[in-house]
Amino acid sequence: MKRRHLISLHDLSADKVQEILTLAAEVKAHPKQYKDTLKLKTLAMLFEKPSLRTRVTFETGMTQLGGHAIYLAQDVGLGKRESVSDIAKNLGRWVDGIMARTFAHKTVTDLAEYAGVPVINGLTDLSHPCQALADYLTIQEKFGDLKGRKIAYVGDGNNVTHSLMFGAAKLGMEIRVATPAGFEPKAEVVAMAREDAQETGAKIEIMQDPHEAVRGVDAVYTDVWASMGQESEAGDRAKIFPPYQVNSKLMAGAAPHAVFLHCLPAHRNDEVTDEVLDGPQSVILDEAENRLHAQKAVMILLMGKKKKK
Ligand code: CP
Ligand code: NVA
Predict the structure, then answer these.
(1) Is 101 among the residues known to form the active site?
(2) Is residue 227 domain-shared with residue 293, that is, in the same domain?
(3) Helix axes 129-143, 14-29, angle to 10 degrees
(4) Can 131 be counted among the known catalytic residues?
(5) Which label site among 7, 179, 226, 259 has the fewest CB atoms less than 10 Å from its CB?
(6) Cα angle for residues 304, 159, 23 (degrees, 5° grid)
(7) CA nearest 10: which of 143, 137, 121?
(8) Domain containing 167 — which CATH number?
């Protein structure tokens, strides 16, 4: 079941994760060659949370592949106006794929169970796999082969952290995650990523010292201190997280060639200073652009015609 969807990078083989990145680079280099790959296909896009990048890149991606995307806002009422399984079964009769951004991760796995068409996780409280694919595509563009490359994630151990850990594990990288005590990535996610890491030689390290995390790394990553759905905690978190701000001083501890990444949206001068976000090491706009290419690759693999044997 899981192989027909993109719910978590943990579900994919290491080869499949690399295949997506390779196809994404190819689609980016030769977009016209793929213009009819999803001709007359439709993607339904369900959003329980706001979005700029995810909505625009999936919709644009479908257009560029010859298909069409439908934006379905909160008023669909997933599990409120109608049960998630009923919505999934209805959509499955009309469309060729579903992308969903939800609070509960279970909503996306339930959609996958009942829809009968491929389901793509466009961010849940637990993970954000499309983001990590774009992030690793961006790092691959800068440095080539990802195996053995080092990335530091500094800040809140959240959905983005989880997918970065799964991706690093599949790609044979070293990831160091530095968070304040109590804001670590989920223990079961760390355990699952470490299991994957055993197969690829990847290293997953969890720590509290941001300076130790960034020492000598190729890429430094941060995200907001309070994610969507945690708005009421933002004030308390703002008192705890300042030592984890990515600023020029912290960046100086990384390798001289290091790049800075952020999934965006950013809260400027909270988790990252303007100086870093807009500085020469920042690759945030390549990263945002690469959402488009990475997701086109995912949609081609999940929704395109199977190759004849
Ligand atoms: N990075 C990301 O997913 O952006 P949006 O929330 O704008 O979709
Ligand atoms: N961690 C953030 C990512 C936004 C793309 C959130 O969930 O709000």
Answers:
(1) yes
(2) no
(3) 70
(4) yes
(5) 226
(6) 30
(7) 121
(8) 3.40.50.1370
Tens-level pLDDT at each residue, the chain (309 residues) = 345 999 999 999 999 999 999 999 999 999 999 999 999 999 999 999 999 999 999 999 999 999 999 999 988 999 999 999 999 999 999 999 999 999 999 999 999 999 999 999 999 999 999 999 999 999 999 999 999 999 999 999 999 999 999 999 999 999 999 999 999 999 999 999 999 999 999 999 999 999 999 999 999 999 999 999 999 999 999 999 999 999 999 999 999 999 999 999 999 999 999 999 999 999 999 999 999 999 999 999 999 987 654
- Whole-angstrom distance, CA of residue 132 vs CA of residue 2: 18
74 is catalytic: no
Tell whether 308 is covered by a domain. no
Catalytic entry in 263, 270, 293, 295 = 263
Which residue range forms the structural domain that includes residue 117? 2-128+289-303
Rounded distance, CA 275 to CA 77, Å?
Answer: 41
Closest to 244 (Cα-Cα) out of 268, 222, 262, 266: 222
Q: How many domains does the chain have?
A: 2
The protein residue whose alpha carbon is closest to atom 7 in ligand 1 is 52
Regarding whether 158 and 263 lie in a shared domain, the answer is yes
